[in-house]
Amino acid sequence: MPFAAALSTHPVTAHATGEVVGQILDRLGRHPDLAVLFVTRPHLGALEDAAGTVRQLLEPSVLIGCGAESVAGNGHEVEEAPAVTLWAGVFGPVTPIRLWAQGTQNEPGAQQVEGWPSSTPFTAQALLLLADPYSFPIDGFLRELGGYQPDLRVLGGMASAGHGPGANRLALNDRVFTGGAIGALIGPGIELETVVSQGCRPIGRPLVVTRAERNVIYELAGQPALERLLEMARSGMPDRDIQLINQGLHVGLVLDEHKVDFGRGDFLIRNVLGADRSNGAMAVGELVDVGTTVQFHVRDAASADEDLRELLAFRQADGALLFTCNGRGTRLFDQPDHDAGVVSALLGDPPLAGFFAAGELGPVGTRNFLHGFTASVVLFRDSK
């Protein structure tokens, strides 16, 4: 198998790094095409040393990594404790990428992303991206990238070890950055699948937006949006669903209006940010056009578990990377190791590494998005 992963919980960075590198060498050998390294906060200050050790002993063509609140490895999750996880694969061409944002003269406050290569030695099928949430305009970058490379899948997450600007660490080969984004463009030679589990289930029925302005929905099917929600609650909605609405309501936006029926994976889930009782309007975390079909959603541990299992069913993988929200883990589930454990159990325990992100990246439909409370999984399958 051309993939390997290792996890160490040793509190000394040098020792932990040595453990994971040794396991990768035993299982895979030197010179992988890509190595991915994640460390938790206790190891953050030594990320440069850890990355240097990986490069010196493993000699990958490309190394990417970052600091995180919590990490995952081979079916396990280590939350807010010392841990180093390392993943490596031999599967085909990979090109490193470094991106940063700078202001524009024409639009005060606007940021323009720099660093995108003018050409690559291959046609990339995916971009693994690790970004700093305080300095990199990820939403704008995804919109711009979709304009000139609409078929390129963007996968990864926002670094979560830092609590403010300059506090995160991103490793790219022999350098460590405190802002911007780093990543790897993946070329042909490997079969790659993506699973984006948004962890919600629908309630009520789909409704068409008949009046909206930017991210505010005023009317659904000709009635105030809030009135539609109250109408649903009065029509025999289970008490459990009403409790979940009070804990946090979400709305799913249909991405392919040509479909007749909508199911799992057809919605982009966004938070309902608030409502105005005076006019029945609802603000949501996404721009909404008139004519968009939407459906209310709720989230709990059972829904998140079911959604991830359903999306992973009948899939195969020789290696996997997991980017899960730092609001999941034991903050959401009763048992530890949930997301990493489900991936390992359903896919036959492929070499897996990942981290708990401050925002997860992955495609829904034909577009790339930044998500929250989501598990974004990259599945690698050896085409040989």
Commentary on this structure:
There is one protein chain. By secondary structure, the protein is of the alpha+beta class. It has helices spanning 13-27, 47-58, 138-148, 225-234, 239-247, 301-312, 338-347; strands at 3-8, 34-40, 62-68, 70-73, 76-79, 84-89, 94-103, 111-114, 126-131, 153-158, 170-172, 175-177, 181-186, 191-197, 201-202, 207-213, 216-220, 223-224, 250-254, 267-276, 281-284, 293-298, 319-325, 352-357, 360-364, 367-371, 375-381. A seven-stranded mixed sheet has the order 8-7-13-9-10-25-26, with helices on one face. β2, α2 and β3 (62-68) form a beta-alpha-beta unit. α1 (13-27) runs parallel beside α2 and α6 runs parallel beside α7. The longest helix has 15 residues, at 13-27. It is globular.
Keywords:
single chain; 384 residues; alpha+beta; globular
Radius of gyration, in Å, reads: 21 Å
Low-confidence stretches: none
Intertermini distance: 10 Å
Q: Classify the helix fraction into a percent range.
A: 10-25%
Instruction: Give the strand content.
Output: 35-45%
Major sheet size, sense and barrel closure: 7 strands, mixed
Task: List the total number of helices.
Answer: 7
Helix-strand category: alpha+beta
Q: Largest sheet, order of strands side by side? A: 8-7-13-9-10-25-26
Strand element count:
27
Quaternary: single chain
Overall geometry = globular
Mean pLDDT: 93
